[in-house]
Amino acid sequence: MPTNRDIYFKLLNEDHKYLNKNVIISLLADANGYDDRMVLYANFDKEVRDFEHLLVNVDLVKKGMPYQYVIGHTYFLGNKIIVNKDVLIPRQETEQLTVDTIVYLKKAFGNGGAPVIADVCTGSGAIACAIEQEMPNAKIYATDISLYALKIAKKNVNKVETLCGNLLQPLIDKKVKLDVLICNPPYIENIKNIDKQVWDYEPHLALIASPATKCYEEIFKDAHKVMKEHYLMAFEIEEDMEKPLIELMNKYLVGCTYRFHKDIYDKTRFLYIIK
Ligand SMILES: C[S@@+](CC[C@H](N)C(=O)[O-])C[C@H]1O[C@@H](n2cnc3c(N)ncnc32)[C@H](O)[C@@H]1O
What we know:
The protein has 275 residues and is α/β, with parallel strands linked by helices. The protein has helices spanning 4-14, 21-32, 37-42, 51-62, 67-71, 92-109, 126-134, 147-156, 169-173, 196-201, 214-226, 242-252; strands spanning 73-76, 79-82, 116-120, 139-144, 161-164, 178-183, 227-236, 257-262, 268-274. Strands 5-4-3-6-7-9-8 form a seven-stranded mixed β-sheet. Strands 1-2 form a two-stranded antiparallel sheet. Strand 1 (73-76) and strand 2 (79-82) form a beta hairpin. The chain binds S-adenosylmethionine. S-adenosylmethionine binds at residues 87-88, 90, 94, 121-124, 126-127, 144-146, 149, 166-167, 184-186, 205-206.
């Protein structure tokens, strides 16, 4: 049987577009049953524990399936997050949105504070999971319109309460009052902008909105029904959305202040609304 090192260099030398270093290491760690890639490095010269499994998975990745779906998990802010075809694979920019929100939460409520928070459009529950770890006394709701997504989210969180329904409706029905709302809704209007691999494998419900601002508008319109008097709403947005979003905030959220933030690639990707 080949060693991990043999396979690593063999696959790397193939120079396949879907098999970069990170993907190969993830596939090898999975085939050996290691959660921590440091354990893989320590056993790099040992035989691959389940070589057949590895071959099947390499084949799926070469055919285009995102490696996170192939191995059934990814990492989000250091937490292992279970994923399958029913949930979007959490992205790096969403980590930035989540960290900024956690920084706000800690400043506003302290480490032991007990704010009421909702992760709307939770998908895999990655955001709710990260917040739960950092704010153990918070009451956290995670909502999604997809029952299939919520089934996965439930596996990734502990005390978070999951609710199914359209945007804020399940929170309105429950008469919840929030200190903080965080949301990464679907926001792609032009499907031509979607990468083929993403389009072929990730849930379209998680991607498409028409118009692009649809979910934001509905949330802004209903915000007064679920938010406390003072609050933060944190959103991931698409580039070039500032103008229509400002118009919507002026229409529905009079008296609030807002800030757009850029991501590490200098693109405006986040909106924070404070009241
Ligand atoms: C872009 S994904 C975000 C998933 C996750 N929060 C993340 O950041 O990785 C959007 C999610 O919104 C859900 N969704 C789409 N339309 C919705 C709606 N009208 N109400 C509630 N959830 C919706 C989808 O099922 C999907 O899980």
